[in-house]
Each structure stands twice: as C-alpha cells, then as structure tokens.
Amino acid sequence: MRTFRRVCRFLHRELGFLTVGLTLVYGISGLALNHAHHWDANYRRTRTELHIEPVGTGPTAEITPRVLALLAPAEPVKNTWRAAPDLLQVFVEGAQYDVDLVTGKVVRSGFARRALLWDLNFMHLNTGKSPWTGIADAYAGILILLALTGIFLVKGGKGLAGRGGVLMALGFILPVVYALAVR
Amino acid sequence: MRKITLMLMFASLLLIASAAVAGDPGKIFGKGVSAPDTVLISDVLSHPEAYVGKTIRVTGTAVGVCKHRGCWVALASDQEGESLRVKVKDGEIVFPPEIIGETVTAEGVWTSNIVSLKPAEPKHASKHVAEAGEEKPACATEGASCKTVYQLSGTGAVVVGE
Asked: Residue B80 is nearest to which of A10, A15, A82, comparing CB atoms?
C-alpha cells in the first residue's frame, strides 16, 4: 500500500504539472462556450449603418463599380454578389456590406476573432481534427489518471475513509441526480 | 521514477511536434472534394429533383455561413439572386465566417426533405399527445402546409485558390 500510494503521488504530481496548460485551455474555453447561447464566444460582431447615393437597379456590371467607388471600403474587396434586384453585397476582409440599391442604405456587418479565446475554443471543440484528436484523447486519459490517483493521496480522516470519501460521494451523486432528473 | 518522468517529457515533446505540423485547417473542410465534374448551381436549382440522391460537386462564392456552429454555407449561383445551401453535421465541419466572399467548391449528396410550414409545437404538448396515444400527422407529402426543401448534405469543401 505504501508503494502504491507513492506511485499515485508521483503520477499525480508529474501529470498534474504537465497538464496545467491544457486544463487552463479547456477550463477558460469551457466557461466561454457554456454560455454560447448568450454570446458569440469566437467572434466579436459589429453592425453599422451608413448611406450612399442610390445607384439604382441597373445591370450588375454597371452598378458594381459605382457602388465600390461610393463605398470606398478601407478593407480589400474579396467579391461582390447581386443577391436580389435591389441588393448588392460587397464582401471584404472581416466584413460585408449590404447595399440597398434603391434607397442607398448600407449595413456593414463586421466580425473579428476574439483574441486568445478563438484559439482556446478551436482546441476545445477540436475544430481542426487530427492531430489534436490524439492530443485531446491523451489529455482526457491523463485527467482520468489524475482523478484516480488523487483518491489515494491522503490518509486518515481527511482521506478516502473520512471527509475525502464524503466529498467524493457527493461529487458522484451530483451527475447521477441530474441525469435522472432530465430523463 | 526519473525514467518515467523522462518518458513523459519525451512523449510531450512528440505531441508538441505533432501539433506544430498540424498545418492551416482553413483551406480544406471535411473530406475535401474528389468528384470529377462540377455541376452548375443554376442547373441544380432549376431541376432539383433530378439530382436527389446523387453525389455532386458545385462551386460558388460563399455568401453566408451559419453564425452559431458554422454548420452550413450558402454558395452563390452562377445566376444572380439564387444560392444553394451546403449543410454539414454540427461539429464535424465548421465553416468560419472568414470564407465569406471566397470561392468555395463543395461536394455532397443532394437531398430533399418535406418540411412542415406550421410553427413547431412546444415540447410538453408533444409529450401529452404521445401519452394520449394520438399520432401527430406526418408531413409525408407536399401540400398546403408542407414544402420540399433541397440542400446539399456536404461531405467536404475546399476554398479555391488558397
């Protein structure tokens, strides 16, 4: 038992230090993504309205250069699209302009990656797939090891046979109660 | 114990190396494209029933993506004013807003679904109906309250020119 506890302490210590970084990645990203119904955790989105002189609903080849000249977007123009007879969309880096050709009203919808959070979410959601899939699997395995080795770190009244055991039981009961409640 | 620590460090360096060569994930989505021929989006949209169940490859400017999970991208047709939606499974492929305005080639199976135009019933109402043994009328055929929705169930896409 003494050797077993020594091994648990060793693994818990070494793996614990190793996974500080990834735990922060998943923890911070988890907080952000858990509230994805309240906000866009990946992009900061903006919407502004402006006006240009109406160019009318003539042929696309004629009106597009006029719209671009009037808009004079600061960003490089990627493409344009006549979405409807009275709507021209101009796509630029990080935004798009929806131009009402009849009224001259323009809505600029912009987006920008949230610094750091975009990268953390990218990893958490495994958006890039391989090779992060293997790394995430390894991290998950290490978390399981940390949980199991942590059980045996402390002896006596604060350990598994005492207060620690009570806390561990409560930690198991919580997800079980929730799983039963939502069925 | 020291040997195990050294092994852990070595394994970590291997993982770091594999992460470093991951490459830019933004150009190829899912399985990419492999179908030999590209079909005009206008052809698909003008005769959608002819392509149902077939694997097709289409190219167009990305003019919209899903803001929530990036689970669809709309590609502009070669004809003005129309577009085709490429739908993928949530999380399997994520189309970022950065591809809007880029030329995208997508591949998948052209599907049709008859959907109800009625507003969705609240969940508790459906449960009570099920408990009472009553069956909700299915939207099996197109009619006044149902319509056919066509979309490409995407398996892959590529941003052209990158």
From this structure: A82
Q: In sequence order, which residues have a C-beta less than 8 Å from that of residue B12 and are 6 or more positions away?
A: A18
From the CA of B141, how many Å to the nearest CA of chain A?
30
Report, in this order, helix, strand and coil percent for chain B, each rounded to 5.
25, 35, 40
- Residues of chain A contacting B94 with CB distance shorter than 8 Å: 125, 127
**Contact status, residue B149 vs residue B111, Cβ threshold 8 Å:** no
| CA separation for the pair A11, B102 (Å, rounded) | 49
Provide the ipTM: 0.81
Q: Output the pLDDT for position A1.
A: 73
Question: What span, in angstroms and rounded, lies between the C-alpha atoms of B114 and B147?
Answer: 5
Predicted TM-score (pTM) of the model is 0.79
Please provide the distance, in angstroms rounded to a whole number, between the alpha carbons at the two ends of chain A. 41
Check CB contact of B76 with chain A, cutoff 8 Å: yes
Q: Confidence class of residue A155 from pLDDT cuts 50, 70 and 90?
A: confident
Note the pLDDT tens digit of each residue in B73-120: 999 999 999 999 999 988 888 899 999 999 999 999 999 988 887 766
Separation of alpha carbons A2 and A121, rounded Å: 41
- Is B2 within 8 Å of chain A by CB? no
User: Do the bridges between strand B83-87 and strand B103-116 make them parallel or antiparallel, or are there none, so unpaired?
Assistant: unpaired
Model confidence over A4-46: pLDDT tens digits?
A: 999 999 999 999 999 999 999 999 999 999 998 888 999 999 9
* pLDDT tens column, B119-140: 665 554 445 445 544 444 556 5
Distance from CA of A22 to the nearest CA of B (A): 12
Q: Where are the domains of chain A?
A: 2-40+119-182, 43-113
Closest residue to B61, CB basis, from A43, A81, A84: A81
